[in-house]
Amino acid sequence: MSAPFVRRTGRPLSFDRDAALVSAMHLFWRHGYEATSVADLTRAMGITPPSLYAAFGDKRRLFLEAVDRYLGGIEDVEQRIVCAASAREAARDLLVAAALGDTGDDTPPGCLLASSLVTSSKEAEAVRETLADIRRGIEAALRARIERDIRKGVLPSGSDAEMLAGHVFAVVQGMSTLAKDGAGRGKLMAIADSAMACWPQVS
């Protein structure tokens, strides 16, 4: 997946672009895509609307870049899954990352991607579908990693790769909801452990 934004050439920026992006990410994370206005963004980022458009393109592209920043690079997430020592390790890494990310001391509770699911406008619906594509891509990478372990005999031959990958993502999204409702890191980590306790093993 290509990067969602390529910076335009021209006059150097008069503000810290990375710091502004982090501020925008936190705002989207707390309120969701549709409920966050350009006025909200410029106020939080400490910039003017022309500066936002010059640096990030528009609200949608700013949001997608914030998502990429949140994930630590969309392509990098998929690559880490592919390169994990095992499918089990890849699944646990996703669950632990969700538990930690959903309960950060300096970030809103829950998951940025899940926070942007409620939509009504056509623009927001397009963003929702883009987020769904991102999640499907990460889930597909995990499914492929599981299938590889099944072929190699690391997982039982009767294991259902689609079900296992889907279960991990169902737990990840559920943990986001629990975090928004006030669940702490200890509870989410225990849920991650419980999910992994169900992971199939070769007898």
CATH class of the largest domain: Mainly Alpha
CATH homologous superfamily label of the largest domain:
Tetracycline Repressor, domain 2
The tally of helices reads 10
Helix content: 55-70%
Evaluate the radius of gyration.
19 Å
Report the mean per-residue pLDDT as an integer. 89
Percent of sequence in beta strands: under 5%
Tell me about the biggest sheet? none
Spans with pLDDT under 50 lasting ≥5 residues? Answer: 1-10
How many DSSP E strands? 0
Number of domains: 2
Order of helices and strands: HHHHHHHHHH
What class do helices, strands and sheet pairing give?
mainly alpha
User: Architecture of the largest domain, CATH level 2?
Assistant: Orthogonal Bundle
- Form type: elongated
Topology:
Blueprint: H1 17-31, H2 38-45, H3 49-56, H4 59-71, H5 74-83, H6 87-101, H7 112-115, H8 122-152, H9 161-180, H10 185-197
Helix pairs in contact: 1-2, 1-4, 5-8, 6-8, 6-9, 6-10, 8-9, 9-10
Question: What does it look like?
Answer:
- This protein is mainly α.
- Helix 5 (74-83) runs parallel beside helix 8 and helix 6 (87-101) packs parallel to helix 9.
- The chain has helices spanning 17-31, 38-45, 49-56, 59-71, 74-83, 87-101, 112-115, 122-152, 161-180, 185-197.
- The chain has 2 domains: 17-68, Arc Repressor Mutant, subunit A, CATH 1.10.10.60; 73-197, Tetracycline Repressor, domain 2 (Orthogonal Bundle), CATH 1.10.357.
- 67% of the residues lie in helices and 0% in strands.
